[in-house]
UniProtKB/TrEMBL annotation:
The keyword S-adenosyl-L-methionine does not apply. This is Omega-hydroxypalmitate O-feruloyl transferase. InterPro entries: CAT-like_dom_sf, Plant_Fungal_Acyltransferase. The keyword Transcription does not apply. It comes from the Eukaryota. Keywords: Acyltransferase, Transferase.
Length: 455
């Protein structure tokens, strides 16, 4: 996991509650617990499905808001704290604590303790945050609260929130949320419900559906697919040495509508007509194929190196019957494609894009039930060895997070959770462009940059 940023080849650490990155300084107040505003169920365990078990990692995001006259003299800290207490009545498992069930799985102890909330003040203006399309863990990490001394996820609350006030009157909301509590869609529904509550809404537009037993494993488990997403692929190219010997560089590559059209056209060259069936590759299929192929080349993988592509497919409408609206939990399932570096680089982009399309098509109700049952029988977790994991945030409605100060001026991740992860983010006012965000060893990043310059 990436735990540090690097500048000029040297590791840069952030320590204490008054850390500095240049003139960017943030002073945190004491953390407090914000409990639900009304009584909620306590004293029992809340069930997490097998789809939740696989991705128990902390995801950190930041939302930045400019000063707004419409909000008057209201203090963002007070407004967001009070609204959090109210929305936690509906999302009360977030006020609990992670534990291990009798079945040796993650569950939530419904304690009602509350979410961790921190007020902070920055010694600079919001403009000094910079460009959120380029993660800077050293700087942005100051806008998100992490429980000091926590050794594992059981010692971390399901979510923490930090509201940082800037000298200009703007503020930032930094969230650290455990992915086992919800996927991207569920997280955005929670944040938007919190924002609605802050604006005074009496009812939530999308109230959460809390019962996750809808995705319980079958008894006995029925494993009807091979589930290569769990496969451990040997690193015969020794990329581990490359990552260990070089600095990890982050870069963001913007694909505007014209460039995306070129990518889709490029993916048609040499494409299998039977696979296309008269339908061009989607933007995701074409861009994923392009990036998978380019990253393989940039890392210099040997021709016989097997490489795996993992990505999540939203299963909400693919389950039979579909999951209820507002399903509070992970409704996503990982699907996969595996090829050798020689196959990817010896073929046009259409080969990789075609494999992405086939991986999407594979995700049916039976595939997803099989994945749930596979974990039940094996307790295996997806392996990231020799793998690229693409996470797509381009369809998430970040702009709905209006707490009374208007839409976020910008929002994005603090860092990428693993070195194998690439993030697709919507970009621009009309959200028609896509930013491709990744980290690579320095020499591999330069090679990747040259390949992107050719598009």
């Amino acid at each position: 996991m990436v735990v540090e940023a690097r500048e000029n080849g040297a590791a840069v650490a952030v320590a204490g509650d008054e850390a500095a990155a240049g003139k960017f300084t943030v002073k945190r107040g004491e953390p407090e617990l914000v409990a639900p505003a009304e009584a909620t169920p306590t004293g029992e365990k809340y069930y997490l499905s097998n789809l939740d078990q696989n991705i128990a990692v902390i995801v950190q995001t930041v939302y930045c808001y400019k000063p707004a006259a419409a909000a008057g003299e209201d203090d963002a800290v007070a407004v967001l704290r009070d609204a959090l207490a109210k929305v936690l009545v509906h999302y009360h498992p977030l006020a609990g604590r992670l534990t291990i069930s009798a079945e040796m799985k993650l569950a939530v102890e419904l304690t009602g303790d509350g979410a961790v909330f921190v007020a902070a003040d920055a010694g600079c203006d919001l403009a000094d945050v910079g460009d959120l399309t380029k993660p800077d863990p050293t700087k942005l990490g100051q806008l998100v609260y992490s429980v000091p001394g926590a050794k594992n996820i059981l010692e971390m609350p399901p979510m923490t929130a930090q509201v940082t006030r800037f000298k200009c009157g703007g503020f930032a909301l930094g969230l650290a949320m455990n992915h086992c509590m919800f996927d991207g869609i569920g997280a955005m529904e929670f944040v938007n419900s919190w924002a609605e509550t802050a604006r005074g809404a009496a009812e939530l537009t999308v109230p959460p559906f809390l019962d996750r037993t809808l995705l319980s494993a079958r008894s006995p488990p029925v494993i009807s697919f091979d589930h290569h997403e769990f496969a451990e692929i040997p690193d015969i190219s020794d990329t581990a040495a490359l990552y260990a010997s070089q600095d990890l560089l982050y870069r963001s590559f913007t694909f505007d509508p014209d460039r995306l059209d070129r990518v889709r056209s490029l993916a048609l060259v040499g494409a299998d007509e039977d696979l296309l069936a008269g339908k061009r590759f989607t933007t995701f299929e074409a861009l994923s194929g392009l990036v998978w192929r380019a990253r393989t080349a940039a890392l210099g993988l040997t021709p016989d190196q097997r490489t795996k592509l993992l990505f999540a497919v939203d299963g909400r409408q693919r389950f039979e019957p579909p999951l209820p609206k507002g399903y509070f939990g992970n409704g996503i399932v990982l699907t996969n494609a595996i090829a050798t570096a020689g196959e990817l680089l010896g073929s046009p982009v259409s080969f990789a894009a075609g494999m992405v399309r086939e991986a999407v098509r594979m995700v049916s109700d039976e595939y997803m039930r099989s994945a749930v049952d596979y974990f039940e029988a094996t307790r295996a977790r997806p392996s990231l060895a020799s793998t690229l994991l693409i996470t797509t945030w381009s369809r998430l409605a970040f702009q709905g997070a209006d707490f009374g100060w208007g839409e976020p001026a910008m929002s994005g991740p603090v860092t990428l959770p693993e070195k194998e992860v690439i993030l697709f983010l919507a970009h621009g006012e009309e959200r028609k462009s896509i930013n491709v965000l990744l980290g690579l060893p320095a020499t591999a990043m330069e090679a990747f940059q040259k390949l992107m310059d050719e598009i």
